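Lab notebook, page 48
Experiment: co-folding of the full assembly
Goal: obtain a model of how the components sit together before planning crosslinking
Operator: M.T.
Materials (sequences as entered):
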Amino acid sequence: MRAMSRLLLSDLGSHWKQGLAIVVLLMCGIATLIMSISTMRSLEASRDRYYARYCFAHVWASLVRAPDGLLEQIGQIPGVQRVSGRVEKHVLLDFPAMIEPASARLVSIDIDPHLDINGLYLRKGRLPVVSEQTEVVVSELFAEEHRIRLGDCIRANLEGKREDLMVVGIGLSPDSIYVVQPGMLLPNNRLYGVLWAPKEKLSAAFNMEGTFNQVTLRLGHDANIGNVKRLVDTILEPYGSIGAYDRDEQESHARVRDEMRELRTMAFLSPAIFLSVSAFLVHMVFSRMIGQQTEQIATLRAFGYSAMQIGMHYMRVVLVWVVLGVALGIACGLWLAVWLAEIYRMFFRFPEMILIRFGWEWILAVSLGVLVAFLGAISGVLRAVRLPPAVAMRSGASQPAPSKGLARLAKIFLLRPVGRMVMIRMVGNPWLTIFSILGMGLGMSLLILSSFMEKTIEYVLDHQFARSQRQDLQLSFYEPRTQRSLYEVQQWPGVQRVEGFRSVPVRMRNGLASDRLALLGLEPDVELFRVLDQNDRPIGFPEQGGLTITGKLAQKLHLSIGDIVEIDLLEGQNRSIFLEVQRIYPNYTGPAAFLPKAYLHELMHEGERESGLFLSIDPDKRSQVYQQIKQTPAIAGVTDKDSALANFRAMISKSTGWMRLINAVFAILITLGVAYNSALITFSERSRDLATMRVLGYRESEVNRVLLLELFWTMFLAIPVGVPLGYLFAYGLVRSLDSETHRFPFLIHEQTIVYAILVMLAATTVCGWMVIRMTQRLDLISVLKVRE
Amino acid sequence: MNNLTRPIFQALQLTKTYPMGDVQVHALRGVDLELYAGEFVVILGASGSGKSTLLNILGGLDVPSSGSVRFGDHELTGASEGQMTQYRRDHVGFVFQFYNLVSGLTALDNVRLVTDIAKWPMTPSEALGLVGLQDRESFYPAQLSGGEQQRVAIARAISKRPDVLLCDEPTGALDVKTGAIVLDAISRINRELGTLVVVITHNAAIAGMANRVIYLSDGQIAQIKVNTHVIPASELVW
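Observation: model returned without errors.
Model output:
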């Protein structure tokens, strides 16, 4: 082995602890990068293959009913490749094991579903055929939740007619990857699912023979989606169409897209933190290493080694660390990606999960590793290369005296020599101190970033479900009903308060911008469904009948107070009206619009009508209320707030619990890595002073104080750096999560800060313990024999 | 020289062996020694003769493999780590070959490092005055010459009013002239404070200023010589 190779091994061996810290941090950065990008690409590939193979539609339109004959006309619209008309209804289901009713979207399928748009993938069993008993395929998550097996029967309320549906298959469809009950923010696979049945059977059950109430379209690559939607609307308008929409507005697709966007943000934010800390660490370790090895460098130069050879030697040291860090990071990232894909499998069911393991992210990881090495090591290596041999031979001189200002500062603030030693060292070595503070601050910011969302979600849930939507149950009717239904429900045992609401599908337009949504009519004194602004203050409706809209809708349609908006009423007589926007309130959900209920009735030319009811009930009589609901044929759907919340919380803790743990472990590794390295450097620079103090009669605990004071001061100074950085990253994340369907408040709870500080304190304490172990091993005699 | 009848240190059959690879190195082989209050003792020997090991054991930095050492009424052999630290803190002053000053502290603060933890210290200024550096109090080590740095180290060692001043090659890193100044400072401390001074060195010229010279060779005391005529440091030649 050549001498320089031996020197490389020796340098790696003598700096193995620092090297380990760098390798671990690089590994964390590269692992999160590979994990996030690989998962993101796997999910995208799985979704895209699913969409392609099972003909995910490009355009949808729901309507009251239209004859099948119209489908041919729609199929002739330029750009349309295939068209399918289906029957889709919401139904209540009665599971004997559940006191509350579940509900489902019942969707018709063609006889040959492989040819169908939004085709069915069968996980188990077979496709339903037309037989005496209605056969259905059940969505996989719903089936799992209810432990439904092939051959089981589900009792359903098909617009008043009770029928047992026989389960012959368990399957998935590309438009139902993420299934959310209408009116709910969150999925609840226990209370809501999708059932597929032959079209003949559904048409018969709902008196819709020869007609359809939803049309789905596949378009060619060259199709103009806007044009297609417009033509579809023209054709279907007389049939009660509530307007065609594309993938962007399709709920399942939009949610999956938002989730992937979040993953993309995390794919770059966390690794950026890790890799910048790694670069800092490489810099810290390298500067110190070169400083310690000036004699070695001078000797090599004196022997005739060129500056380039010296530079290459140090670059090889850092390259070994980087290669190890990147390789371990890729391996660890791939392993984590498999784990994360498994977590996503709980939420998004794809027929197959394609795991993408190789790709451009590897090149990115290697490039970032090299960049970290370059940025971190370059100044140290240049110093080594530029060191004139003569200057290098003068090493061993005493440390220079601190500057006068610094000396005065130390005298003013600290009286004891031990405190002054710490201060002079921290202020006199500013780059090391700044890097340590910044590194620990970044660790802290990662802790804040990884944990603040939990409190934010909890706040939004509290705002939405405890303060705003105060009902226990929300019932929706197949068709609007008179106020009698409200009085009837009021008589049910266990019902404490009932309030009705009117919901009318509309399309709102402002210039070229438009949106489809439900215009909600509420009583002015509504108690169970309060419209609140983001500060939890109730919004009063304008007396003159003006429109109240959410900030999201205002943003989407470019509306401000006083603007006149055109509203197509898509129910009843299908006419257009113009209303003035009188209130815009910021909140956390998507586009929504409200009117006083009486005014909405007036606009609809109708008397008192209820689209559904909000109920507050006696919790002890819940089962009796459910019993009544199950026996009421007019009810198409019921949402149970507590159950939805409990389900969501369970889902969140399952998915984010592990993620939070991993991030906390990584953040602790950053803090430990930085603090330990900084302590190692301090220790190596200070070992002579510390040994001297021990010989002079200082106790171990007193000597430890010098190192611990510096360590904990660094940590305390990292807090005012880490907190703003954490706020900044959290703000970036909140902004990136701002989607059409929801918005998160930028809110960092004090508990999150306390948690981050406590974790930092714990990591610093562990580091302190390692420092104490170092002083225990201090060899007093040999240190004193060594020239400074 | 006072109180020659009362030994401060009593060492009996001191041995010290170190493992070095597969071999045991015998640094001390049965040393018997008594050191008295107020004495100026020079321990002379070549490299590897065991003089540093002996100094380390007397200073409470190392423990013998066998034999015993008593300091006054205290048995040092078998003392715990904490007791050894307390012993160094209360009774021993050290002067090192390479001064071992803390570079970030002024001369005064380097002395204060010891006066802060000593029981009945003199003031740091007083200690620096004793070595003639009262005008260098606010200087940092890098601003002082080698001899001045060593004198600061002496001031630091004596500021606690130690019973014994142990000096490990105190002039090893200095030229003759500066070395003489440093030795003069040490001898002054011995005379004026009555402190037992033990200097280990391989420089035979220093032997002239000692009351007793102990010659160590191969881990054993080869000879003890009592000087009837003590030469002042300024007259030493090497």
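Interpretation: The longest strand of chain B covers residues 7-20.
Next step: discuss with group before ordering constructs.
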